[in-house]
Design goal:
Pfam families: NTP_transf_2. GO terms for molecular function: nucleotidyltransferase activity. By secondary structure, the protein is an alpha+beta fold. It is built from ten helices and five strands; from the N terminus they run αβαβββααβαααααα. The chain has two domains: 119 residues, 2-Layer Sandwich (Beta Polymerase, domain 2); 93 residues, no CATH class.
């Protein structure tokens, strides 16, 4: 199936006021799986019927495909892109810069140049945020070391992997992610460091996993506990 053609027909039928349309995600990368949807980033001055609406995230079924839409007016895109950068997870910025465009009114190139610069700059981790993240990791790490129930161990370890992976990425000026993209970003940072964490985690060797988390915590600045004010 020509998924780009499906996307073009969908936009023409459902969002005719679109000025810029981009296919992103696995469809754009040519990495679709049997359950992949089509991710679309849409920008336009006249996307919505309501004048004060500036953004919409919605899911549609069209020609047998599930289509995830992220639609914005120019002002709405600026607001949500800035928010994503501030939260260190600029999803729609990645969609804008890395996706495949199929509709462009001439404004895409300067938009891409601007936000590519933001992506290249990377996230900024303040000392206060670093301390807070290390405080949370310290607390969860101690809980994991104390846990005896297998279910509690598994839950604490999963939380800990997410938290320490984010800290590792941010400490190296890399953007964070959720779901499957978090381990992918971590492996891009360092396959060796990712394996040191993931191998004992997958083996449910929680003692070794906790030690490896402790190593990464020390590397990022160490434990934070007594005297921390939040």
């Amino acid at each position: 199936m020509d998924h780009l053609a499906v996307a073009e027909r969908f936009v023409a039928a459902r969002y005719p006021g679109t000025d810029i349309a981009i296919v992103a995600g696995s469809t754009a990368r040519g990495e679709r799986t049997p359950t992949s949807d089509i991710d679309l980033l849409l920008l336009g001055d006249a996307l919505f019927e309501t004048e004060d609406q500036t953004s919409e995230a919605s899911t549609h079924e069209f020609e047998g495909e599930i289509i995830e839409v992220f639609a914005y007016t120019p002002a709405g895109f600026e607001e949500w892109a800035d928010r994503g950068v501030a939260q260190h997870r600029p999803v729609i910025v990645h969609m804008l810069v890395e996706g495949t465009p199929f509709r462009d009114d001439g404004r895409l190139a300067p938009l891409r140049d601007r936000w590519q610069t933001a992506l290249d700059a990377g996230p900024s981790l303040s000392p206060q945020e670093s301390a807070f993240r290390r405080y949370v990791i310290t607390d969860v790490l101690d809980d994991l070391r104390d846990a005896a129930d297998p279910l509690e161990q598994q839950v604490e370890a999963a939380i800990l992997f997410e938290r320490i992976a984010e800290l590792m990425l941010l400490s190296e000026g890399r953007w964070i992610a959720t779901g499957k993209w978090l381990p992918r970003r971590l492996r891009t940072l360092s396959r060796e460091r990712a394996d040191r964490l993931s191998i004992p985690l997958l083996d449910r060797d929680y003692t070794t996993f906790a030690d490896r988390v402790g190593d990464e915590l020390d590397r990022a600045g160490g434990r934070v506990q007594s005297g921390f004010v939040r």
